[in-house]
Amino acid sequence: MAVKPKEQRVEILIDVQNLYYSARNLYSKKVNFGKVLEEGVAGRKFIRSFAYVVRTKTGEEKPFFEALTKLGIETRVRDLQEFYDGTKKADWDVGIVIDAIRTASSLDVIVLASGDGDFIPLVEYLKNQGKRVEVMAFGKTTSSRLKEAADEFIDLDFGLEKFLLKK
């Protein structure tokens, strides 16, 4: 990991669904969000972190939400929408974009933990505002254009023992 200026003010925005499904589909494991947070902060001034999560009717994810909160990650919760045809949707993209734009003025670095190419315009906007944008995700499932747009891409595939939970 490169040494980063300690005085940089950092915020981390975690697209939980994106990282969760990448880890599950690639490695059949769960993400160690504590290590993602630690790597994203990288010894700099931690301002805040948001995890964008989805609540189901069963509520089985409640312990996971509590674990995130214990790590110092604020959860943004949206209910899973279920449609008549059986499809389910819980899209956080707009919420992530709004939080990034709303908080950017008090930050030096925004770390986006997502491989979703839909965030390319956000990355470009933040960079045009003079912000450093770092993207963290599993490289195998990350948009190549998103990797290129970021000031730095941190590939979680090259730290599996750190970024994936053991069990």
Automatic annotation (TrEMBL):
NYN domain ranges (all copies): 9-157
Pfam families: NYN
GO terms of molecular function: RNA nuclease activity
InterPro entries, per database record: LabA, NYN
Domain of life according to the entry: Bacteria
Protein name, UniProt field: NYN domain-containing protein
Source organism (scientific name): Candidatus Staskawiczbacteria bacterium RIFCSPHIGHO2_01_FULL_41_41
